[in-house]
Amino acid sequence: MKIELRPQLHWLIYFGLLFLSPSLFAHGVDESTQQFLVTNQGVSIIPFLYIGAKHMVTGYDHILFLVGVIFFLYRPKDVLIYVSFFTLGHSLTLLVGVFNDIRVNAYIIDAIIGLSVVYKGFDNLGGFKRLIGFQPNTKAAVLIFGLFHGFGLATKLQEFDFGGEGLLQNLIAFNVGVEIGQFIALGFVLILLGLWRRHASYLQFSTVSNTLLMSGGILLTMYQISGYIYY
After folding, report:
1. Is the pLDDT of residue 85 over 50?
2. DSSP string covering the chain, please?
3. Which of 118, 153, 199, 207 has the CB geometry, 3.0–4.6 Å to 217, for a possible disulfide?
């Protein structure tokens, strides 16, 4: 019994540390990256690859949503399909949003991203079937929320008047970096879930896990709404 509980405790510790850390709530850009974005001139492929990858790896809201998406996906083909929908969504709005200077309030977008985590946790619990009697199209939901996640990425760059010479090349490099970061983060999550799935506790505590996921999303959403109100 003690062995079965261990993976669940690891997840509880993960979520606990995640939401007890004030620095993570900021989900901002570190000082050195800020300085680079403000002063950069011309094409800088490698730095933007690195910034994109780092942003995704440390983007806990994106990672939590992906955890919800793949929580009950066991076949690699299904994981690839759903992650591709997410990638398509956030790549589209990231590129279009920044390149065409479409600006959206960062607090509102981040609040919606928080709601995407709530949505997926609620979906995993079968909440929609109980509440409205049918299951919404999950692929469509992942794509739509991917669009909002992309706007979330775009707002981070636009805060620093990202543009000028080499905009398209740098933007593509940033997006490729985001995909690299997503691949790294997703690989890490899949390894953890794969290890946990070997134990009966995975399904036994699936309700608790997705309730924690929803709670995290609610907390993120409330934090962003409060920021919007008092900003």
Report:
1. yes
2. -HHHHHHHHHHHHHHHHHHH-HHHHH----HHHHHHHHH--S--HHHHHHHHHHHHHT-HHHHHHHHHHHTT--SHHHHHHHHHHHHHHHHHHHHHHHHTT----HHHHHHHHHHHHHHHHHHHTTHHHHHHSS---HHHHHHHHHHHHHHHHHHHHHTTT--STTHHHHHHHHHHHHHHHHHHHHHHHHHHHHHHTTSTHHHHTHHHHHHHHHHHHHHHHHHHHHHHHH-
3. 118
